[in-house]
């Protein structure tokens, strides 16, 4: 697909660099922009530049934030003794949506993945160990995806943290609420069985 | 999904305005930009602005172009007597890819669609009729999608052009090359039958 216009070609090329977009979709988006007022595209371009230039990471938890300290770390009502370890801001949002978590977070900024060249030093791990070592934390909750990279990262963190007098937990894995047993995969069902909980504790919540 | 960062929120909001993107995809794209050098986002923003500010429409065929007259209209080897009517630049690219067309184009810029508030006056139709009326054209080929809007547009154009001494044709509809008959829909197969062609003419091409 050779585009006759250099301006269009350049726009399509740059849009197609975004994840999940091919050249055809990128072309459709570029043409869509022409059907809108120019001010719309200027706003889009401005927002993207402001975002990458201005966004900060919270100095304590490394979550994306407009301020030096994010609103969660700055909230005195949160339980600073409990730290939930997540990959990025999407997982923070998912945890916050449950309404069941009142502790703080440690955003790693990724997962250990030798295939992608991401090692422990590329993640925000050092200052988590430092926080734990000065006794600021009593429980660490691993909330990472149960993929090979997630499991590797959890194992690495566990090795770093196991000698400190803290509780180290991970999210329970099991059959999702509302799911029929017959459609659950056997590994998940197996974990549900191994980590079965007293029925009275379910009745209470 | 309430994003804690205004900069991120603004970026996600603007990306999600693009067609086919929801907020989750937009958030993934915004986070992806942070993994790339900032210069990448600046290039993207610059390309989009340059595109909407600088792109022109060819004064003759209304195709997108960096110049006043597009390279197709400016090519003296093309047959100026034949004009292929298409919706937008994507259809021009598709037609050019066949390598079988040597005439010029008329890019309408859309299709008549009362549902979307697009009437004949919103399209580049008037100057097509003018070209035909001054005898500059001997054949008009309708190459519009066979949807309700495409059919409506073709019918409108036909009414405007039918009294001039020109040939008016439309793309042949039929079973695609390589397709098995049993999987063709009945309307398409019906059209293939009605517009059947002499076997010798197939042998020649």
How much of the sequence lies in strands of chain A comes to 5-15%
The overall pLDDT average of chain A reads 91
What strand line-up does the widest sheet of chain A have?
4-3-5-6
Of all chain pairs, the largest interface belongs to: A-B, 54 and 53 residues
Work out the helicity level of chain A.
40-55%
Q: Roughly how many Å is the radius of gyration of chain A?
A: 22 Å
Query: What is the number of E strands of chain A?
Result: 6
The oligomerization state is: homodimer
Q: Termini of chain A, distance in Å?
A: 58 Å
Task: Write down the overall geometry of chain A.
Answer: globular
* CATH architectural type of the largest domain in chain A: 3-Layer(aba) Sandwich
Number of domains of chain A: 2
Descriptive notes:
Two copies of one chain form a homodimer. The first copy, chain A, is of the alpha/beta class and 205 residues long. The first copy, chain A, has two domains: 6-54, RecR Domain 1 (Helicase, Ruva Protein, domain 3), CATH 1.10.8; 64-203, Dna Topoisomerase Vi A Subunit, Chain: A, domain 2 (3-Layer(aba) Sandwich). Helices cover 42% and strands 12% of the residues of chain A. Chain A has helices at residues 6-15, 23-34, 38-54, 89-98, 126-133, 148-161, 186-194, 199-204; strands at residues 56-57, 64-65, 79-86, 103-107, 139-142, 167-170. Chain A has a four-stranded parallel sheet. In chain A, helix 1 (6-15) packs across helix 2 (23-34). The radius of gyration of chain A is 22 Å and the shape is globular. The interface between A and B is large, with 54 and 53 residues.
